[in-house]
Amino acid sequence: MKFPHQGILKLGMVEGEWVVGVIDEIRMPLNEAVPRPLLVDTKTRYKATLPTEAQMRNSRFQLMCYKYLWDCIVADNFPSGDFYKCFDLDPQSTLSEDVGEYSARLGLRAKTLEDVVNYFIDTCYLLPSSQEKLMLRYEYQRDHSLLKEYVFDHDANWFKGQILKFLEFWSGVREASFVSKDEQWKCQFCKYASICSVTAGSDCSYRGSSTLLIRHISNISQIKRDPRRMDSHANPNILKVCEK
Ligand code: SF4
Question: If you measure from the C-alpha of residue 167 to the centroid of ligand 1, how many angstroms do you get, rounded to a whole number?
Answer without folding.
Answer: 19
